[in-house]
Amino acid sequence: MKKIEIYDTTLRDGSQAEDITFSVEDKLRITEKLDELGIHYIEGGWPGSNPKDAEYFRKVKDLNLNSARVVAFGSTHRVGVKVEKDSNVKALLHADTGAITIFGKSWDFHATHALKVSLEENIDLIRNTLSYLRPRVDILFFDAEHFYDGYKNNPEYALRCIKAAEEAGADCIVLCDTNGGTLPEEIRKITRDVKKVIKKPLGIHAHNDSECAVANSVVAVSVGVRHVQGTINGLGERCGNANLCSIIPNLQLKMGFRCVSDEQLRRLREVSRFVNELANIRHFKRQPYVGDSAFAHKGGVHVSAIAKHPETYEHIRPEWVGNSRRVLISDLAGKSNIIRKAEEFGILLRKDSPQLMDILQKVKDLENQGFQFEAAEASFELLVKKTLGLHKRFFDLIGFRVIVEKRSEAEEPLSEATIMVKVGGHIEHTAATGNGPVNALDNALRKALEKFYPELKSVKLYDYKVRVLAAGKGTAAKVRVLIESGDDGSKWGTVGVSENIIEASWQALVDSIEYKLLREEAEQDRN
User: Fold this and answer.
1) How many other C-beta atoms lie within 10 A of the C-beta of residue 61?
2) What is the DSSP letter of 3?
3) Which of 156, 291, 487, 501 could be joined to 458 by an S-S link, Cβ 3.0–4.6 Å?
4) Does residue 473 have a pLDDT over 60?
């Protein structure tokens, strides 16, 4: 099986994405995760560009990596400065990584208009820098910046640039589609042309400005490239870089190349989510392979088919990349959806069960009213258990009142909720404030219940969404409230619908509390 070198540049190229900032500690933690995934090369940053990257290269030496090599990234030496005197080149060597990537211009337009040097001077910059570094470093990569655009504009000059890098001792020549505008067939043709001239191994570094970065990387491999650069989740400047979370399984599961071990491939989703968490961005649920929706099935016909043969509607087994199959509940659901979903709750439903039809009809009726269970699976589980007589009421509402008061134009509004609930034979009457009416109601409900159910102290409200369901009715329109709650171990979604946003929020809040208490009770019964 042919092997592919995977080179990750999340910590450098990925961190150049809008809204993305990694601390030194973040970068070190991501480095360890990438090593666990089996990434061969991890580009840590540009040690000569900023103090944070310099600190990273000092601290990364203390990590006990299994196999990944950390790479320092930098440019050819500056115009008018001898290579041995250039501070950036010195910083690359001082990083002491044993592997260095140098990028240089291979587009004549960039040489003359960005660097403002002659074409021959640009080739000298490439040759001088690599020749100087060659005896001082174990592994030396050359990133031919803007290569594909350069080749299309002046193929002879672009080839001269990478030929100079090869002669100067680069171990691998990486062809870059830096502007991300080259299409797959162009990548195929140009890369084949390069292989006729360059004998050293070739790499591909693609950007995603035309939505072709993954396709371009795969096509390059199909014509002989054996080194692929990209980022986790496709993070990167402008529209991002080639997404390694798609490239790795495409190459390994579809094309028969070896990128990582099968066990490491099963970590792919975990690593994808880990990087997004540290980047503080939401997970893209429709991301191929690793997204929440990648193996989610909604239509009843689909669910019935995958129950017999998963390959009817799945191109790979989700567990191969650490993902899992999900069955969604909506007004498109059939019996198969309900049965499969009930199985996830530990409930066995027969196809001929009259309760099955009751559940299915309730789902369709509620969705017609505006409820949505795709993102509120906890509410759906409660619906099933109520229909089957498996639900337990933990408290009864006697009443609540929510007050929003604004005392002056300059002051923020104040929100206060008063609530009275009955738990067993006890009545609890309490009040709480919040930064809004729903937050105040949530705080008051918890305050009333926590003395009876201390396990609720671990529950957090992670997300709160409101959607107006009917246009044209103004403030009288129905709203749907989706709430995401969680504790130290998991997260769950609940839903409420009403013309009154407080009532809709109450429904979702009560479902969230009851779901948590039912789950805790079931856990205690198992123990």
Assistant:
1) 11
2) B
3) 487
4) no
Give which of 61, 37, 35, 56 is closest to 45, Cα–Cα: 56
Query: For residue 102, what is the enclosing H or E element?
Result: strand 99-105
- Res 509: pLDDT: 95
Report d(CA 195, CA 203) in Å as an integer. Answer: 11
pLDDT of residue 331: 47
Which helix (H) or strand (E) segment holds residue 246: the answer is helix 244-249
Tell me the torsion sign for CA atoms 108, 111, 114, 116.
negative
**Could you tell me whether strands 479-486 and 491-498 are parallel, antiparallel, or unpaired per DSSP bridges?**
antiparallel
Q: Can you tell me the distance from the alpha carbon of 370 to that of 473, in angstroms, rounded to the nearest whole number?
A: 15
State mean pLDDT over 110-117.
92
Tokens of 11: 């910590």
Rounded to the nearest angstrom, the gap between the alpha carbon of residue 335 and the centroid of all alpha carbons in its chain is 32
**Between vectors from CA 256 to CA 250 and to CA 258, what angle results, nearest 5°?**
85
The full set of domains in the chain, from first to last, is: 5-279 (3.20.20.70), 395-452 (3.30.160.740)
d(CA 52, CA 49): 9
**Which of 42-51, 155-164, 268-277, 381-390 has maximum average pLDDT?**
155-164
Least confident of 48-62, 93-107, 166-180: 48-62
